[in-house]
From TrEMBL:
One of its GO terms (molecular function) is endonuclease activity. The lineage of its organism: Bacteria, Pseudomonadati, Thermodesulfobacteriota, Desulfovibrionia, Desulfovibrionales. Pfam families: GpA_ATPase (PF05876), GpA_nuclease (PF20454). Residues 306-595 form the Terminase large subunit GpA endonuclease domain. This is Terminase, large subunit, putative.
């Protein structure tokens, strides 16, 4: 009896393969040749790429935009997506590059080696040399086309299922044709919901390219949240928490000695590059508006167009010191091109011309004739006290007691709803004892000699010196609160109990309350007060000796309508601005505007004794009474 058997190859073709995410496929079948770490692909090198790869083939997703820094490994991750498509879900592919030379180089150096270096993908090669040119690669079951932005002919007349638009912001414009981006996207129309489009680029300006996609097309934008390797708390890394020694300003020194570090916003632990890499490996993508994890958001909201934002400090290939050095390079040169490089290539943000809503001269116009340290005296008419309370705001700077210092302002607040206030003193304190002397060891006087003392102080505690600030506040409980700024929260001020010093099991004696401050609320309030003329009710007064540095820092931030938040441009100090925000929050916490102004007791008139006048006609005066 004849028995029919399928060959191994036939059985392999007919066998239904189990579903596999792209990130898993890449670790099994991708071999990287053109890289500083050649060899088999490992997701642990660029952990953020796994989520991007898997999201690319989610059933709801059609377009994937990645606003990235250079040296992030994202280009190789998208090659993984194409490799997965070749093996698992074939269809015509087109790569579009800024120019012809870049297209040919990528075909030769990256795409062909990707296919030839993978045992799985190599099986799809035809074996014919004619099928492997620098502008087209023919596989057994699908073609791969190479095109560039300056050639409409290369972009037209081809149905494309998988489209990769690489370095979108560098594309050349055309006077007679639609944009290369638009022409290429039209090639995917016939594939409808099966098509995938990747838009990858380092941003340049707000009005074009990848940033336009992120802000206008993307229905969901994801940020990568890391997890501290010390306290395991999740957080979004920001440039503001990258620190280096205060006394080092040479970018090459910071870079060569690897002096930069990152400070955890929860426990205050210091991360070096290795800690940063561990934090990234423990991280995950979260949607910017909902806060949902990547897959949960895709499954729940099913967006067709998604975006991913990837700054340089997340990349294994970019050290924290390299980020810091780029910033310091601009800080030393003050060259706008250096700042643009930092914004585009490290923050992965577009270059924008920063506008200042308040200039320094307008700030200094708020000065009155009081000397530094002088409190306004009682009202001249009746001697009614003008000042309800003195409040201080302190901004903590530096990484330890040897390199740290404190910026502070002391502001006097008047009575009632008008919220009129006067700057008494601003400056720098080098140590905690010096700060304590300024706040509570000194009495401030008005022109009549009346003494005033600081009623309440608020101190920023979210930095390198969190433990020290907590200890200082615990030692001066009732007179000062540690604070944490929040961009938005349900109430202007909220309190959170603290039982332990961060990162330890050591108890804070008597416990402590952390005051969380809605910075947007109080910054809006401060900006409004700065626009009040000095002679109008509710004015925001400065003393006669207010330094220019104060005025500069008070105009550092601007309000970004798109983000609905206050933004401080890179390289500008805003310490006094932060101090004044805390002073306003302190007056709000005290409820000064609801305090009833004491009334001066009216003074009794002294009666002048009357000199008796000799009566005429022998009649006694009325006051004589019955005297004998």
């Amino acid at each position: 009896m004849y028995r029919f058997n399928f060959s191994m190859a036939e059985r392999a073709v007919m066998r239904r393969r189990a579903p596999m995410p792209v990130s898993q496929w890449a670790e099994r079948h991708r071999v990287v040749a053109y890289s500083t770490i050649p060899g088999r692909w490992h997701n642990s090198i660029t952990p953020y790429s796994a989520g991007i790869m898997d999201a690319s083939f989610h059933e709801a997703v059609r377009k994937i935009g990645i606003c990235k820094c250079p040296q992030s490994g994202i280009t190789e991750a998208i090659h993984n997506c194409i490799g997965y498509a070749i093996d698992r879900s074939p269809g015509p592919v087109m790569y579009v590059y800024p120019d012809e030379l870049t297209a040919r180089e990528n075909a030769k150096d990256r795409i062909q080696p990707m296919i030839e270096g993978s045992p799985r993908l190599a099986t799809y090669l035809t074996g014919s040399a004619d099928d492997r040119s620098s502008l087209r690669i023919n596989l057994r079951h699908m073609p791969i086309f190479l095109a560039w932005s300056g050639s409409a002919a290369r972009l037209g007349n081809k149905p494309i299922r998988y489209l990769v638009l690489d370095e979108l912001d560098k594309y050349q414009g055309s006077r007679n044709e639609a944009s290369a981006e638009a022409l290429a996207e039209k090639r995917t129309i016939t594939w409808r919901h099966k098509a995938r489009i990747w838009k990858i680029s380092t941003p340049t300006v707000e009005s074009t390219g990848i940033w336009q996609y992120m802000t206008r097309e993307a229905q969901a934008v994801f940020d990568f949240h890391v997890r501290c390797p010390h306290c395991a708390m999740e957080q979004l890394m920001t440039f503001d928490r990258i620190r280096w020694p205060e006394d080092v300003r040479d970018p090459e020194d910071v870079l060569s000695r690897q002096l930069a570090e990152y400070v955890c916003e929860h426990c205050g632990s210091v991360w070096h590059d290795g800690d940063r890499d561990r934090a990234v490996r423990l991280g995950l993508w979260r949607e910017r508006s909902t806060g949902l994890e990547l897959k949960a958001h895709l499954d729940t909201h099913r967006p067709a167009n998604v975006g991913f934002h990837l700054p340089a400090w997340l990349s294994y290939f970019v050290s924290l010191s390299k980020v810091a050095a780029s910033f310091l390079r601009w800080n030393a040169s003050k060259n706008q091109e250096d700042l643009k490089d930092f914004c585009n290539n490290f923050k992965a943000e577009p270059w924008r011309v920063y506008r200042m809503d308040r200039d320094e001269d307008r700030i200094l116009a708020l000065c009155d004739d009081r000397p530094r340290g002088m409190v306004p005296g009682p009202l001249a008419e009746d001697g009614t006290p003008r000042i309800a309370a003195l409040v201080a705001g302190i901004d903590t700077q530096g990484s330890d007691e040897h390199r740290g210092y404190f910026r502070y302002v002391i502001r006097a607040f008047g009575w009632g709803q008008e919220d009129e206030s006067w700057l008494i003193q601003c400056g720098t304190a080098p140590t905690f004892p010096a700060l304590a002397e300024i706040l509570w060891g000194s009495a401030y006087r008005d022109g009549h000699g009346n003494e005033y003392r600081v009623r309440l102080a608020l101190q920023d505690s979210m930095g390198h010196r969190t433990k020290e600030v907590y200890a200082f506040c615990a030692a001066n409980k009732g007179r000062i609160f540690p604070t944490q700024g929040k961009q938005h929260q349900a109430a202007p001020l909220t309190y959170s109990p603290l039982e332990y010093y961060p990162g330890t099991q050591r108890r804070i004696p008597g416990g402590l309350r952390l005051l969380k401050v809605d910075t947007t609320f109080f910054k809006n309030d401060l900006a409004a007060k700065l626009s009040i003329a000095p002679e109008d009710p509710g004015a925001f007064h400065l003393h006669h000796d207010t330094p220019l540095e104060y005025a500069r820092e008070m105009v550092a931030e601007y309000y970004d309508e798109q983000k609905q938040a206050w933004v401080c441009p890179s390289g500008r100090d805003n310490h006094y601005w932060d101090c004044e925000v805390l002073a306003l929050a302190g007056a709000f916490a005290l409820g000064v505007r609801n305090w009833k102004q004491p009334q001066q007791e009216p003074k009794m008139k002294k009666e002048t004794p009357q000199v008796p006048v000799s009566p005429t006609g022998g009649v006694r005066p009325s006051w004589w009474g019955g005297a004998r």
